[in-house]
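task queued by scheduler; priority normal; single chain, no ligands, no partner chains; default sampling; output format set to structure tokens
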Amino acid sequence: MSYPQRTATVKVRSFELDSFGHVNNAVYLQYLEFARCEYLEQIGLSFNDFDAWGMYPVVVHTSMDYRKAARFGDTLHVTGGVIEWGRRIRWTMQYRITRADDRGAGGEVIMDAKQIFVFLDSEGRPQPPPAAFRAAFDSPEAAHQHEGT
């Protein structure tokens, strides 16, 4: 099955740079977190839904492959989505960060990443993803419901 992809845009700020003038490797984790928050909004969900469900997602594994350096002022597109729902409690998201070209479209690849998640309940026990969460991420219509806002 092919799952919908979504895109979030971030502009590199000066405080995200390391002493070599490019984005510090740890900042890319923040870009992934920012993108996930944007994806939630794009599909009509928010962090308030986690409270209502009595559970929240946590990252249990991250892998990142750096391709090119991002620098101050670059506009980056973080495109990603769910690529696999595990049999019970895990799901995997894949991301690609590209530098916008002079037309604002995705240009050269900066980084590829994957993250594995589980939901935990208020006692810290793993739980299957809520049906509404999975349905929203699987819906191609949800991918476009907030475009242009």
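post-processing summary
- The CA atoms of residues 75 and 103 lie 11 Å apart.
- Residues 6-136 form a domain with the Thiol Ester Dehydrase; Chain A fold (CATH 3.10.129.10).
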